[in-house]
Specification:
By secondary structure, this protein is of the alpha+beta class. The chain has 9 helices and 6 strands; from the N terminus they run αααααααααββββββ. It has a 6-stranded antiparallel β-sheet with strand order 1-6-2-3-4-5.
Length: 316
């Protein structure tokens, strides 16, 4: 077999060769078209560079930079779409719809003088039976008038006097000296001495001059028949210089006290004062003699109700 026969044996059919020629022609045309586009692009780049030919050397061309910089691509993601779907209806509902409240059934609220439980659809409340049996309390107050206050004060004073009288009546009687009626008058021997308020000193009975206690101590000595030293009664064996303490000291010594006055007894008053019982009247009132009753260090006489003082009986 010669060489021509070999080529003929491997030679493709005519139709195949035609298809191959058409493909090569199409590829050549596409290649030429691409080359033409690249050539045009280079021409535009050359023109852009020529626009800035007066710019200093080394300065980048703005047009070239802009033309070569990539453009950002804006994408609408699912979150943006979701937010738009929520926000837009909310804005429309707020602006477009009127701000009115409607009751069930399409009725609107209106002012009314009555309350309808059905329309208001109020909740029913069940009250336990225990609540009905709970005690009800109402706080009240009363106003006390001035007359009622005064009546209460007088009633309390009467009760205090009755208690004081009962206290006096409960005291023992014991033995005591009974003196006859003495002559009235100021027989106090130191009536002209300077009292303690003005710098005076103590009397021979060791009480301050012209005090109530010194006068009563003098009368007790006089009734006992003693008018000079040595004295039977003085500050050391009678009572202290405070008239307020005399009733307590009388009891501590076991000397009798009573609500019944007797001549020669000591009339004791709770406001720090003592006096001498000079006589007793038919109506039960008591005549007393005293010094310094008005804080004037002077002699006085007066009549008092029997129940206005406690009577300290003179010891034997």
């Amino acid at each position: 077999m010669n060489g021509d026969d070999t080529n003929d044996a491997h030679e493709r059919p005519r139709s195949s060769r035609r298809e191959a020629d058409r493909g090569r022609a199409r590829r050549s045309a596409a290649t030429e078209q691409g080359r033409s586009k690249r050539a045009k692009g280079k021409g535009r780049d050359t023109a852009s560079i020529a626009v800035d030919s007066n710019a200093p050397a080394g300065t980048p061309d703005l047009a070239t930079t802009v033309s070569r910089s990539p453009r950002p691509t804006r994408r609408n993601g699912p979150m943006r779409v979701f937010a738009t779907v929520l926000v837009v209806p909310a804005i429309v509902g707020t602006v477009a719809l009127p701000a009115y409240a409607f009751m069930p059934g399409g009725e609107t609220f209106a002012s009314s003088g009555t309350f309808s439980l059905t329309k208001a659809e109020a909740q029913d409340i069940e009250v336990s039976s225990l609540a009905s049996g709970a005690p009800l309390s109402a706080e009240g107050y009363s106003v006390t008038s001035k007359a009622e206050i005064e009546a209460a004060r007088l009633d309390q004073e009467a009760k205090d006097k009755a208690a004081w009288a009962a206290n006096l009546a409960s005291r023992g009687t014991g033995a005591y000296a009974v003196h006859t009626v003495k002559a009235e008058g100021d027989d106090y021997p130191w009536w002209d001495q300077t009292p303690d308020d003005f710098g005076g000193g103590l009397s021979p009975l060791r009480y301050y001059y012209r005090e109530c206690v010194d006068f009563v101590a003098w009368r007790m000595n006089r009734d006992a028949g003693v008018t000079s030293a040595p004295w039977k009664w003085d500050w050391g064996n009678l009572a202290s210089g405070s008239a307020h303490a005399w009733a307590g000291e009388w009891e501590s010594r076991g000397w009798p006290t009573s609500s019944e006055p007797v001549v020669g007894a000591v009339a004791w008053f709770p406001y720090n004062h003592v006096a001498y019982v000079q006589s007793i009247n038919g109506d039960g009132s008591v005549n007393i003699e005293e010094y310094n009753q008005n804080s004037d260090h002077s002699y006085h006489r007066r009549t008092i109700p029997a129940g206005s003082a406690l009577y300290l009986y003179p010891p034997v």
